[in-house]
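SECTION: protein entry
WANTED: fold as tokens:
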Amino acid sequence: MLRSFVALIIHISPLPVRLVRPLITALGVGLLALAAGRARAQTPRVLTPAPAVAAAPASPRRLDDFLLVARQNSPLLRETDNQVRQNRIDSLVRARQNGVQVSGIGSALYYPSITNSKGESVVGYDNAVTNGGNYAAIAQATKPILNRFQLQNDYQILANQGQVLRNTGRLTGLDVRRSITDQFLNAYAAESQLKFSRTLLNQLRLQDEQLRKLVNAGIFKQTQYLSFYLSVRTQEVTVEQNRLAYRRELGTLRALAGVADTALIALETPTPPAHRPLAGLLAPSQRQYTLDSLRLLLDRRAVDAAYRPKVSAVLDAGLQSSSYLPIALARSVGIGGGLQVAVPVFDGHQRQLQYQRLALSEQSRRGYRQFITVQRRQQYEQLEGLIRAADALLARIREQVRVADALVGAARQQLATGDVAILDYLNLVTSYRTLQFSLTQAETDRLRSRFALDYLAEQ
């Protein structure tokens, strides 16, 4: 950008040393008072410590405990919290930037010159320009003034960034909750299958003892008993496979939550969440696009602010001399003060190009928001349909399991008297085992849909 700088600097030099210090003090106090007044009016709040968080159990068993541990151990959530604190620090930094800035300037430049026999300079700068040298030691104080529009817009941008970070933290927390909940349901389903397999194995082992007596009594043949014996050994392998599957799913859950425990524990049954309506415009996913719209508006105002004149008050004090001799330096002590103005003149129409760029970003924002609004509504209605279908399916499976359980119980009693063939009994057990597995899967899918609906209602 091409800018023309109009600087009005009033220099008072030289002055007696006894007058320099009072003048510097008076001007410095004036600038500091102006800065303090502006800072009190516009400085944001200071940082406050984070509230205390409830302690998480070392070996969680409930879903809520895993969620609490995951939130406390998640590096993403911790990073988001730190970014929010950094945003508050950025606000304090911006307030300090609007105050008085003091810098020290020192220079010691010598410009040699070679003359001929006539005293004419043949090598070197023109002495009328350089005076042979430049020796300076200056303390300079600057303070931006008449920049209320720029300052307010910068504070609003920082506030918008803080809101975006906090909203991102909410979305991250919801993602952590969803991943932990899904894995908890996987582990709970694996544990339920393990419990059923163990219960069935214990029943088969008790039945195995009865069948051995019946085989010894000649009621069943040895070949028929071998089929049952093979079924018991197969069920033992199934129990071991289910135990390994549960250990794997539980280990994955603990890894996601950041739990160091490795013991095989029993999980508590998760409580299905209540049905909630779909979240509206205040939901984090929707609020993100509202904040993006505000940010684009502030970016446009920032472009306008960049093309406004910038005025700064300047005060300097020290010494400047063209000679390094002590007498000359002692007589070159002084102060200077005034205003510095920067006015944009021409930049190749970059302002209009930045407006066009912001307009394209606004079009993209509207497209994303419209798409996600339709998508969330479609997902919500789909989950409601899946829950209704799961309720109907569970009712049918539970009825079939009840009938199958009654048949297996009756066949177990008749097997003790030899009224039911062993193969028929094993077929009933296999059907009962298949129905129980289907029941576990259906209950898990229904819980997953209920939790997904609850997540979508808040997300």
